[in-house]
Design goal:
The protein is α+β, with helices and mostly antiparallel strands and 263 residues long. The protein folds into two domains: 2-82 and 225-259, no CATH class; 87-221, no CATH class. It has helices spanning 2-27, 227-259; strands spanning 37-43, 46-50, 67-70, 73-80, 87-89, 96-99, 103-107, 113-116, 122-123, 129-130, 137-138, 147-152, 157-162, 169-173, 176-178, 186-189, 192-194, 203-205, 214-217, 219-221. Strands 7, 8, 11, 15 and 18 form a five-stranded antiparallel beta sheet that branches. A three-stranded antiparallel beta sheet has the order 12-13-14, with no helix packed on it. Helix 1 (2-27) packs antiparallel against helix 2. The chain is elongated and about 100 Å long.
Length: 263
């Protein structure tokens, strides 16, 4: 009965973490480029009281199943799911969507590179193309003051039409980055990710080449959170939490019965 108390407690702790992850998914349901997370669990150490296949007292016979008692569950990972989110048309020239694999590259204040699926870029006071937090898109692009039209092609070519010119001016080409294990990226918040040993080194390339997705201008990628699925997961986690708490109550009642025994 004491084992049941501790085993059920691990179940309650695991479901509490599960609810925290689901809550974060639902909170970011309208967040551009957000990727939902999933909690993965494993069972804990088993106590073997009778080994399967061990010999019995009768010669030539073996125990077919044995007795192994588990000690609960634990959360082993919270995995980012980098499936494609839905498309949303904005009409804004600096809004960009990656249709397929890849991340935009942005420069952080310390000079390092961060990665994002959020393509809602802006123009700062100097004309640079930056994120909503002011981090420049890499490679750097500076839009002239007299630019009247901005065009970004599926291959990442960045062109502007300046006053008095009939021919667009090419400012360069957006390069995307991809990873062997995107789920291994470190989440920084602000829709940004950092490279880690688990993700592998960033592999840069042009959109539409070597497995990279293409860029669609004037569209944004919305969150890949499915609210119906998350609500079902939340109900399932809540019921699992209730069942584990009920198990603790039952074990406590049984201990109370033992404690009340009299000779």
């Amino acid at each position: 009965m004491m084992r049941a108390l501790w085993t059920s407690a691990t179940g309650m702790q695991a479901q509490q973490l599960n609810i925290d992850v689901i809550a974060n998914n639902l909170t970011n349901v309208n967040n551009t480029g957000f990727k939902r997370s999933r909690t993965d669990f494993q069972d804990l150490l088993y106590q073997t009281m009778r080994t399967p296949g061990s010999d019995t007292s009768q010669a030539g016979t073996q125990v077919p199943t044995g007795i192994q008692l588990g000690h609960g569950t634990k959360a082993v990972s919270v995995t980012k799911m980098f499936t494609q989110g839905s498309y949303f048309e904005t009409g804004n020239d600096l809004d960009m969507l990656i249709a397929g694999d890849g991340f935009f590259q942005v420069q952080m204040p310390d000079g390092t590179t961060a990665y994002t699926r959020d393509g809602s870029f802006k123009r700062d006071s100097t004309g640079r193309v930056v994120t909503s937090d002011g981090y420049p898109l890499l490679p750097g692009f500076t839009i002239p003051v007299d630019a009247s039209e901005i065009t970004v092609g599926p291959d990442g070519s960045f062109n502007v039409l300046q006053a008095g010119n009939q021919t667009p001016t090419n400012l360069g080409q957006i390069q995307l980055a991809r990873f062997v294990n995107s789920a291994g990226l470190k989440s920084l918040g602000s829709n940004l990710y950092k490279e880690t040993n688990a993700s592998g080194a960033a592999q840069a390339g042009n959109p539409g080449e070597t497995g990279m997705g293409e860029i669609t201008q004037r569209f944004l990628e919305m969150s890949n959170v499915n609210m119906v699925e998350e609500m079902v997961n939340m109900i399932s986690a809540q019921r699992a939490y209730e069942i584990n708490s009920k198990t603790i109550q039952t074990a406590d009642d049984m201990l109370g019965q033992v404690a009340s025994l009299k000779r």
